[in-house]
Specification:
This protein is mostly beta strands. The protein contains no helices and eleven strands.
Length: 123
């Protein structure tokens, strides 16, 4: 099982970035996948997640309306479209596979993590 996050970089406030999470060893209709972030000196927090099966989506309050999570089962890829970025979105972003039942934005429910991609929002 592997998850590979990519697409991070430098964006200006108000700008956009799209992150990709390429997965292997499992299919996206079997497990929920979430995006998380960890800013320097802060705990890892859930950003968005997409369920298996029908693919219901969930968002943290801080990103709702600005970020969109989606998945392409054929490409085994989960995306995080981030718009109207602000400096508080600066963090390392990780994707992960949910292993335990519960709130899909709760990091301890995840065991398989990708390596992370840096997102920096700065003017």
């Amino acid at each position: 099982v592997q998850l590979q996050a990519s697409g991070g970089g430098l964006a200006q406030p108000g700008g956009s970035l799209r992150l990709s999470c390429s997965v292997s060893g499992f299919t996206l209709d079997e497990y929920p996948v979430g995006w998380f972030r960890q800013a320097s000196g802060k705990e890892r927090e859930g950003v968005a997640c997409v369920g298996y099966g029908g693919g219901d989506t969930y968002y943290a309050a801080s990103v709702k309306g600005r970020f969109t999570i989606s998945r392409d089962n054929a490409k085994n890829t989960v995306y995080l479209q981030m718009s109207n970025l602000n400096t508080e979105d600066t963090a390392i972003y990780y994707c992960a596979r949910q292993e335990l039942h519960g709130d899909c934005l709760f990091p301890p429910l995840y065991k398989m993590w990708g390596q992370g991609t840096q997102v920096t929002v700065s003017s």
